[in-house]
Amino acid sequence: MANLLWLQGGACSGNTMSFLNAEEPSACDLVTDFGINVLWQPSLGLELGDQVKEIVEKCISGEIKLDIFVFEGTVINAPNGTGEWNRFCGRPMKDWVKELSAVADFVVAIGDCATYGGIPATAPNPSESVGLQFLKRDKGGALGEGFAAKSGLPVINIPGCPAHPDWVTQILVAVATGRAGDLTLDEFHRPKTFFSSFTQTGCTRNMHFAYKVSTTAFGQRKGCLFYDLGCRGPMTHSPCNRILWNRHSSKTRAGMPCLGCTEPEFPFFDLAPGTVFKTQTVMGVPKDMPEGVDKKGYIKLTAAAKGAAPAWAEEDIFVV
Amino acid sequence: MSENPEASITQEQRQAYIDKYGLTPAEAGHEMLIQMIEDHFAEGLETEVEPFPETDREFGALLDQLRPLSADQLREKLVISGWLLQPYGEDQMRCQECMYYLVHKRWCDLPELDLPAKPEWWCRLWRI
Prior knowledge:
The structure holds two protein chains of two kinds.
Chain A: E1 2-8, H1 14-19, H2 27-32, E2 36-40, H3 50-61, E3 68-72, E4 75-76, E5 87-88, E6 91-92, H4 93-103, E7 106-110, H5 111-116, E8 129-130, E9 134-135, E10 138-139, E11 156-158, H6 165-176, H7 192-195, H8 206-210, E12 281-282, E13 285-286, H9 295-308
Parallel strand pairs in A: 1-2, 1-3, 3-7, 7-11
Antiparallel strand pairs in A: 4-8, 5-6, 9-10, 12-13
Chain B: H1 11-21, H2 30-42, H3 56-66, H4 74-81, E1 101-102, E2 107-108, E3 115-116
């Protein structure tokens, strides 16, 4: 039996909604098959007010062993570092977060807000939001760079806006069943098993990427979304096209550009107008190249690919 | 298309196309449009090649100018997009390498232009 407590800071509840859609394993499987005891969860918990406070206090005092502390949303520090804008059970949430993290065996940050600050931490960041152990790419966050949970692991970051439900449940199962030692984390504390490949890995539009045929308007089923519509699939680490959403699709498969939501910088370009669904270029050449590709190589590749592109690459080849 | 009077072809311009080709650009097919474009340049058409849109804001501003134009406003499309019938710049940029160019259809797929083009042509909306 592993006790799990889930709290929420500056959040939209999107990760909770995502979590409830998990299938392999499902949220119910966590309880029935993997022995996870959910002490409380903001959308699922039956307790209210003082009853919740009692659970949380017992975790901090050690009366209830806290195996896994899950946090969704940013840690809010406004106004002026007090955290008063996000009060929970009578005090700033950021104080609960620090104390619970100190007693938990594992701390898991779910979603881009809890991991790196996400949209709330975008400039000018009025809520003074931070992630648990990062603010965008900078180490530190609410718990500090040197933080390690009692297990010895730093915060385990499962980013995404939202995180895919099965990434969440699979990591929770690994931790709850004593297989945390199998987890290796990348420099941004993401489990490598999910975040070593790219969103582009498995994308059904890869042929169009290879032959440099662009999607030029929403709704088109031909073409690659990278060249014009701002898709960040070639430089975003996620398994969105390997572990499909709702088990059968993904943003790019549905014609929606990847927004890079599993990367610390998300949302990119501080959401300046015209940046979200538009590939940013300098003199016609993309500012952000596919990872590992330089400008010279990109230009050469483009010339070769366009020259070799077959006629079918210019057609909508998808069928219902 | 648009209520904007500048965003529609004048009767005079329409008649000139009909007198010369028997139809307007909106009614013309691939080869006829190529002919119309080449004829515009042969008649001395000068397009706004500079400034090249260096940022996406500038690029978007050009698209905003093109979007209200009707399919008959071929001349305006060519002028605003900085269309040329040869490669441009030090790097000899040309349609062939542009992301919007469909090499088999020999067509510019940028919705705001939506015109036939030859591989050696170029315009300032070029991007790769």
